[in-house]
Amino acid sequence: MNLYSLLAANFPKDDKAPCMILSDGRAWTYGDVKRASGRLANLIVALGLKPGDRVAAQVEKTPEALVLYLAALRAGMVFLPLNPAYQRHEIEYFLGDATPGLFVCRPQVSGLASELAAKAGVKQVLELDDSGRGSLIDAATPYSDRFKSVACKDADLAAILYTSGTTGRSKGAMLSHGNLIANAKTLHAYWHFQPGDVLLHMLPIFHVHGLFVACHCALLNGSAMLFETKFDVTRALKLLPQATVMMGVPTYYVRLLLDKNFGREIVCNTRLFVSGSAPLLKETFDEFKARTGHIILERYGMTEGGMFTSNPYAGERRGGTVGFALPGTKVRIVDDASNPVKSGVIGNIQVRGANVFVGYWQMPEKTLEEFTADGFFKTGDMGSWDPDGYIVISGRSKDLIITGGLNVYPREIEEMIDAMPGIDESAVIGLPHSDFGEAVTAVVVRKKVGAGGTASITETEVIAVLKAQLANFKIPKHVHFVDKLPRNTMGKVQKNLLRNAYTKT
Ligand code: AMP
User: Fold this and answer.
1) Which residue CA neighbors atom 7 of ligand 1 most closely?
2) pTM score of the predicted model
3) pLDDT band at residue 504 under the 50/70/90 scheme
4) Ligand 1 mean position to 308 CA, how many Å?
5) 411 alpha carbon to ligand 1 midpoint, in Å?
6) Superfamily classification of domain 1-152
7) Most buried residue among 28, 275, 291, 388 by CB atoms closer than 10 A?
8) Which residues does 410 contact at the CB level (< 8 Å), separation at least 6?
9) Does domain 401-503 have CATH number 3.30.300.30?
10) Nearest atom of ligand 1 to the alpha carbon of 380
11) Which sequence spans correspond to the domains of the chain?
12) How far apart, in whole angstroms, are the C-alpha atoms of residue 136 and residue 328?
């Protein structure tokens, strides 16, 4: 089945029901979405693209951008969303690798886009600006708003999402209609989406979290989305009373808690707060509960398959864990010899299920390497089972530190450092060391105090506290203090940047 057809079958009967409510109060109804996606689908076909061709979009978050995704689905094309932050070098690679039939870009970079498109042999370049206007929309205007969505098989590709590629060439994860449908249905049911739900949508839509997890749940529910271009605390405080569900990365919750106006009255109508894409600190989880009475539901997944695990909706949501395997997804944790690990022992997380991606675009060998013989995908994440079977993520295996032949899991040390008074947050990395192979190194942000000041905790103090609790080989050789940690748009700490920065010094 075509994913769009499934979503559309669940749209409200009333075409006037709101689908996206914008910050200026304008609303896109479900009828608008059907008509605009029909028109764009007709345009894409008229441009000569055939099912399976790629439609790349590097545009700002607008209703038209989401509708372009839906149009690509309807026409059987493969949607390729690109972070607007990407520059020449990155765009050149994506266009060359994915060879889309159509590239939709922002007008302010149309010169560059056309140059790179020509180089990559991309035939069509159209524009869409941040107010939803541009040659894409103009070109679609003459076309009919009716379009019969093409029939799809489960394995037909719906999207390619490039991974952030912090350890080499960025890889295009191929997701099929079947993959996206499986995950959308599971999440919709597992998180108890219900009539009347309204989703606060402040995430970007070039990423799995904002585009698939958030939009698919809302569209499958025929819900309204409070569709904001980005996360903003003031806007969130204003809109939360109208929202029943919010999805965010941990940073959003941290920022809400920093605002003294955030409290129980603001969240009186919200039934669910979902967090993911990066680890939610236990401290944030606890503080959120104390301030609002709500227990954030943390889930875990990745571009290569959407969501794999979730804390329960109805049962106990446990801070510091990502819950259990979702229905339809098998999760196992194995050691380096592929044997299942016992509870409490950290191993490699592997997943299998209808949601798990088809493979990496034009990288058959890489795809083969990343799957086991029995069809499990090696996520590259490490984790363990807690005594009750909740999964605890310890971080990416590439961030594992091996010092003097011994494994050090950064998260264990980070949690201890973060719990020290005077410390806001930390990242623990391994740096090349002639003797130990890698040297454990901590990069730490002190808590802000007073007007513009910071807590005075020192390297010696941090090390002393750790020494009282941890084996010597885990103790950082150095503690560097910084104003803030480098994070990407999804709130992930970019440890590769830290490793580069401190390797040079
Ligand atoms: P992405 O493909 O950009 O969504 O990134 C996926 C990666 O984010 C995963 O492989 C994990 O390393 C990390 N991640 C996602 N959710 C969580 C979570 N709840 N806790 C810890 N790490 C997470």
Assistant:
1) 302
2) 0.92
3) low
4) 10
5) 14
6) ANL, N-terminal domain (3.40.50.12780)
7) 275
8) 394, 395, 399, 400, 401, 427, 428, 429
9) yes
10) 10
11) 1-152, 401-503
12) 39
